[in-house]
Amino acid sequence: MTTTTTSFGAANTAVLKDPKIQIRSFDGLRSSNSSLALTRNVNLFSVSSSRPSLVRAVSTPVKPETETKRSKVEIIKEQSNYIRYPLNEELLTDAPNINESATQLIKFHGSYQQYNRDERGAKSYSFMLRTKNPCGKVSNKLYLTMDDLADQFGIGTLRLTTRQTFQLHGVLKQNLKTVMRTIIHSMASTLGACGDLNRNVLGPAAPFARKDYQFAQKTAENIAALLTPQSGFYYDMWVDGEKIMTAEPPEVVKARNDNSHGTNFPGSPEPIYGTQFLPRKFKIAVTVPTDNSVDILTNDIGVVVVTDANGEPQGFNIYVGGGMGRTHRLETTFPRLAEPLGYVPKEDILYAVKAIVVTQRENGRRDDRKYSRMKYLISSWGIEKFRSVVEQYYGKKFEPFRELPEWEFKSYLGWHEQGNSGLFCGLHIDNGRIGGKMKKTLREVIEKYNLDVQLTPNQNIILCGIRKAWKRPITATLAQAGLLQPKYVDPLNLTAMACPAMPLCPLAITEAERGIPDILKRVRAVFEKVGLTYNESVVIRITGCPNGCSRPYMAELGFVGDGPNSYQIWLGGTPSQTALARSFMNKVKIQELEKVLEPLFYYWKRKRQSKESFGDFTIRMGFEKLQEWVDKWEGVVSTPPKYNLRLFSDKDTYDKIDELAKLQNKTAHQLAMEIIRNYATAQQNGKGE
Ligand code: SRM
Ligand code: SF4
């Protein structure tokens, strides 16, 4: 199989099928209507919504001819006795590291071997552990456990990820078993957080007491359970075979065991995965209409709850074929948006998901891991063929995709009513990194009030189930550690994300998490220079390489590391995360960012249409025009601030602001200005407290 589709061709295929995804053409013009009613899938067959169902108008799946060439990882999986050998032996040696085969296998257990790339000389090995938390749910006990483990066995920080999980960096090999055992005994897991299988299932993180939200979360949990490995390798390795699994809902067990349409390996300890598991990682997100907190279109499968007029969940729209990863200078690799597959009644969702997973299992490429994600299968087959093969495993036809309202990005930051007399509080954490005073304070609050938490797909955290009387003391305590309410945080920071990159990610070409604070400050300075106001913002995402871990290809302004201290610049995503950005410039040196950003923001300020976002503006203008502006740019004269904060505040106040500012990686002046501007805006809008 060869894949020849370019990124732009692939993007186009995806957007054309969904009436609510923005239409982007690639000559710089965009359709004037951002919500066009386009092609719909037409269903010619009536379907029954109850299980088990008979195959109608579909035939038994035919297995493709066995591929001869297989990647190294396929052989390692095959010879591993279901992800055990040689990891079990390698863990027992005195060496600080494990061999290549074991390094591949430990991923399935939720861990990566790493070394510190800042250090010269002999490699200092350690392991990163990643938890699995469907829809980001984290019990009070697990939070406190992870907080302790980070101090006792990690590098003293916790990392919240773009897929609603924790990462714990820096665990030494000799401590791995203790750490794993502790996590498992906290009724949590790292099983399948990495490796060629279904990863953490995203779901809307807000703890709303609403039927649709709760149904979406339950569905995310059920899908996660359905696709959890069954052969016991995880518990054998870390808790000597002790069985510590929670009871599964009967519908999950039934769907997993169902083999009416040839999906399973009968008698195998891994009925869905078999010995080879999937060709590559696999990602699923579930959400409710309008709520695009999960970046739904970037997933292999996107599932959207569809309700009736009374808010009762009836079924699901399903998208397929999203993914971000690409390789520099290889146009046959590309980020891609998921596209509509169809609608299924609610009782069929696990069967439909399983059928899609099995289609990828049987047909995804296993010879070259660069092309193994399901997005390449769908790009090469086209959605019609893909749908017809999935229907064979599903045993039914998909119904037509239901119409959905516009997507919005929801952050859940700040205080909100849960709808059951409790409150929740969403906190912005820069790049999901919890450390220092912030870590100590978060722990104190979570422990003192016995709070459960939810992690968001934007590296943030939500404190759940808070009584109204606790709101004031919690707000005050958090603020002292720099955990401010969103109105006091620079809007650029609120939507920005960076991946971990250096020093531990082996694939990083340049900085991301460590570089972003300075980049955001510089963007803010450019905003001020060209006359953009404090409340204006753009979605900025940065990665240290083209793999796309912080989803930079959905950003309005994406920085993708393409050399030491240099980035590709991607433009054209939307604040609602519904359009793919496009690559604008390569190899922009970090110290030269202003040369590109100043003209872009200058003209955005002057030539945009009413309320036009930066991403929309760059697409409307066209990259040729933007390039011309950048090439001809001679700069604007800025007016330096005429005031000095020290002159306006007493020493004590200044020191406090300075301390708080340092926690947020800002100057005292910047923070003071943010607070004053926010206060003034709130007063103007009549929302002053
Ligand atoms: Fe990622 C590999 C970190 C979300 C695409 N990712 C890695 C590794 C494990 C590097 C490695 O293979 O050795 C990184 C570990 C760095 C470290 O030191 O912590 C890493 N990825 C992350 C996290 C922590 C980024 C973050 O800022 O939060 C995210 C953890 C998610 C989780 O909790 O499960 C993370 N990675 C993503 C996403 C976003 C998403 O899933 O929504 C993507 C793009 C979506 C997608 O998969 O298409 C993503 N990561 C990749 C890829 C490229 C995959 C591809 O299809 O080509 C790799 C490299 C690979 O798999 O070969 C990768
Ligand atoms: Fe590492 Fe690249 Fe992912 Fe960043 S995007 S964490 S550099 S793999």
Automatic annotation (TrEMBL):
UniProt subcellular location: Plastid, Chloroplast stroma, Chloroplast nucleoid
Enzyme class: oxidoreductase
InterPro entries attached to this UniProt entry: NiRdtase/SiRdtase_haem-b_fer, Nit/Sulf_reduc_fer-like_dom_sf, NO2/SO3_Rdtase_4Fe4S_dom, NO2/SO3_Rdtase_4Fe4S_prot, NO2/SO3_Rdtase_4Fe4S_sf, NO2/SO3_Rdtase_FeS/sirohaem_BS, SiR_ferredoxin-dep
Protein's UniProt name: assimilatory sulfite reductase (ferredoxin)
Keywords: 4Fe-4S, Heme, Iron, Iron-sulfur, Metal-binding, Oxidoreductase, Thioether bond
Physiological role: Essential protein with sulfite reductase activity required in assimilatory sulfate reduction pathway during both primary and secondary metabolism and thus involved in development and growth. DNA-binding protein that binds to both double-stranded and single-stranded DNA without significant sequence specificity to reversibly repress the transcriptional activity of chloroplast nucleoids by promoting DNA compaction and possibly regulate DNA replication.
EC number: 1.8.7.1
Catalysed reaction, written as an equation: hydrogen sulfide + 6 oxidized [2Fe-2S]-[ferredoxin] + 3 H2O = sulfite + 6 reduced [2Fe-2S]-[ferredoxin] + 7 H(+)
Residue ranges of domain Nitrite/Sulfite reductase ferredoxin-like in the record: 125-182, 416-479
Nitrite/sulphite reductase 4Fe-4S domain span: 223-398, 495-632
